[in-house]
Design a protein that fits this description.
Blueprint: H1 3-6, H2 14-37, H3 49-62, H4 65-96, H5 98-112, H6 120-127, H7 131-155, H8 159-167, H9 172-183, H10 185-201, H11 203-207, H12 215-224, H13 228-256
Helix pairs in contact: 3-13, 4-5, 4-7, 4-10, 4-12, 5-7, 6-7, 7-10, 8-9, 10-13, 12-13
Length: 260
């Protein structure tokens, strides 16, 4: 079973891959603990894993970290679902009608290269300092990437599928919904999973805008007082939430698209 890990493009073995992944994580944690215990790096810059876990437990039991996590998850999912609901039809239209693609793609390419932090002042001017600004910043970091992914996914659907649908009398809308959308399903779900991860990466930026809740607020507040274990504990929570979400979406992908 282990040979597949060292074979070029070898077969998959979920059990072995899980064991190797856990072993790699354990080695990394051990190295981190060793560096911290030997004092090679000052604790204020790199606390030990034990100190981070202690801070995490303290934040869970005394500082309502679970509630802050739920608030952040609500913001991320609200922005992500809004981005997906907009990006999927627009991306499909861009791939299906040249005039739509020619009109929108240059603008989308321009906007997606703009750094989100640079747009924070504008977002405050436009939306104030409430929830709308946070949702907008998260949406901004997700939508323009996702819409291009969707357009590329739709373009990769073989033209033969469209020709067969036309032969049996399908109209343009039916081709898009019943042929293209279904054919691009596996790659679309993968790209949704990837862009959801990107949405989480913009969380800190979104939650430093006059926030009083959320993981980003917790991390930013801890940074202000140089509470490095708390900062790393907050980052750890974001990573764990992202990892669990990613694995659940992978399982969903395997169940829905068993033929891939």
């Amino acid at each position: 079973m282990l040979r597949t890990l060292f074979t070029f493009r070898g077969g998959k073995s979920p059990a072995v891959e899980l064991i190797v992944g856990l072993a790699a994580a354990a080695i990394l944690l051990g190295f981190w603990e060793l560096v911290a215990r030997l004092g090679l790096v000052k604790p204020q810059f790199l606390p030990s894993p034990g100190d981070v876990l202690a801070a995490l437990w303290r934040m869970l039991t005394q500082q309502d970290l679970l509630w802050h996590t739920a608030v952040s998850a609500g913001r991320v999912w609200s922005a992500f679902l809004l981005a997906a609901l907009m990006a999927i039809p627009i991306g499909m239209l861009m791939s299906s009608y040249r005039i739509v693609g020619a009109s929108l793609e240059p603008m989308i390419d321009f906007i997606r290269y703009l750094p989100v932090p640079a747009l924070v002042p504008l977002s405050i001017i436009w939306f104030g300092v409430g929830e709308s600004t946070k949702i907008f910043l998260l949406w901004l970091g997700t939508f323009f990437q996702l819409v291009l992914f969707v357009a590329d996914d739709a373009r990769r659907v073989p033209n033969e599928y469209v020709e067969v649908a036309r032969t049996v009398g399908a109209r343009s809308r039916q081709v898009m919904t019943d042929v293209i959308f279904r054919a691009m399903g596996p790659s679309l779900l993968d790209n949704l999973r990837i862009t959801l991860g990107w949405c989480w990466t913009y969380l800190i930026i979104a939650e430093i805008v006059a926030a009083d809740s959320g993981i980003g607020f917790v991390i930013w507040s801890a940074r202000r007082y140089v509470k490095t274990p708390e900062v790393m504990a907050g980052v750890l929570v974001i990573g764990l939430v992202g990892l669990v979400t990613d694995q659940l979406l992978r399982v969903l992908h395997r169940r829905i698209f068993q033929y891939v």
